[in-house]
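Weekly modeling sync, notes
Attendees: S.R. (lead), two postdocs, one rotation student

Agenda item 3: backlog of single-chain predictions. S.R. asked that every request posted to the team notebook include the full sequence so nobody has to chase files. The rotation student volunteered to paste the first one in as an example of the format we agreed on. Action items at the bottom.

Example entry:
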Amino acid sequence: MPKSNTFTEKWYIVDAKDLVLGRMAGRIAWLLQGKMDPQFANYAKPKIHVVIINAKHVGLTGKKYDDSEEECFYWHTGWHGSLHRETYKQTLTGKHPERLVYRAIKRMLPKDSSRARDILQCVRVYAENEHPHQSQSPQNWDLASENRKNTIRGAN
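Predicted structure, as returned to the notebook:
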């Protein structure tokens, strides 16, 4: 039975340029839960941190990048008539494109667990290539080479 103090702290860096958003978010959620560890236990929280760079250049498949009504984020402020809508394209070209990747990872985590709040604190998403986590010496995790479906076809 593993305990939380038996896990060592690990840092990973993922370059999201031309990666398919859903496949990337699923793999990162899987990693953050500690399911790749042979000592995996539901109750123990692994000390894994993921830094995602180039979130502005993430790839979307299908019609998600079009301004369609089907693929949108909706939220309500609580006031009458204040239902807001934002498409994926508006999010990526807007002020905070990293929110698209963060929301995708959040929605891949288990909904009924209080661990999801703790796990999301270990995710750092940056829109461009620069990040302040060089001192942690994160190891590069190349998702593009794991499966050919992880990247957008025809991307450079």
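Discussion: group reviewed the output briefly. The chain has one domain: 4-61+95-150.
Action items: rotation student to repeat for the remaining queue; S.R. to check formatting next week.
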